[in-house]
Amino acid sequence: MRTPPADLLDRLRAASERILAPDHPPSIDEVAQLTGIPRTTLYYHFSGREPLVDALLRDKVIRIGAALSAGMPEAASAEAQLEQLLTAIATTIAQDPTLCTTLMARLALLPDEDPLHAAVDRVVLRPLERTITAGIAAGTLRSDDPELTAHALYGAIATAALARFTRDGHLDGDHLARTLVPQLVAGVRAV
Predict the structure, then answer these.
(1) Chain centroid to CA 22: how far?
(2) What's this model's pTM, rounded to 2 decimal places?
(3) What residues form DSSP beta bridges with 189?
(4) Which of 31, 104, 141, 171 is the Cys-Cys partner for 94 at CB 3.0 to 4.6 Å?
């Protein structure tokens, strides 16, 4: 697979809800019709539908990482950083809930050594774990296992977001963040 250019990914991302439709996953020919991208261009970059979906998922993980690192003040307390990370996760999931649903489903089926797992670990879980560890060192956060706590916090937001999206057909990331993030941070705050 060749690395697709940004404008191609933008067009695919704009149609990702239809591309990732579980009831009728479109073929490459149908993706070409949906997006207006020539079929030959799609086949130049992707050998089939699955590599195209993988490219969308990798792109999503990259964008999650960018959202998590954007504007993270170095001087902020670990608790404030944790709040910002969890809020960024919630709002980023809300931007592409269908893509995130597919990402979570794909991760559940892939072996742990798959590069997609490593990417999620690097851009989502490690920043959470580092922040929790820094909070423990500062005495503001508590956890016996920062890695497991990072998984639990990410999982809580992802599960709640995907349940709400499945039920309602849409997702309000700001509401999700306002509702869940304070509760999650309170759960790891040092008493």
Answers:
(1) 19
(2) 0.81
(3) 141
(4) 171
Spatial distance between the Cα atoms of 14 and 120, rounded to a whole number of angstroms: 22
Give dist(CA 130, CA 145) in Å, integer: 12
Q: What is the rounded distance in angstroms from the CA atom of residue 153 to the CA atom of residue 132? A: 11
d(CA 128, CA 188): 12
C-alpha span between 6 and 66 (Å, rounded): 15
Give CA–CA dist 65/124, Å, rounded: 6
Q: pLDDT tens across 26-50, in order? A: 889 999 999 999 999 999 999 988 8
Radius of gyration of the CA atoms of the chain, in A: 18
CA atoms of 79 and 181, how far apart (whole Å): 11
| Each residue's pLDDT tens digit, 160-191 | 998 998 899 888 999 999 999 999 999 999 87
The CA distance from 186 to 55, in Å, is: 36
Report the amino acid identity of residue 112.
Answer: D
Indicate the SS3 state at residue 102: helix
In angstroms, the CA 101 to CA 140 distance is: 33
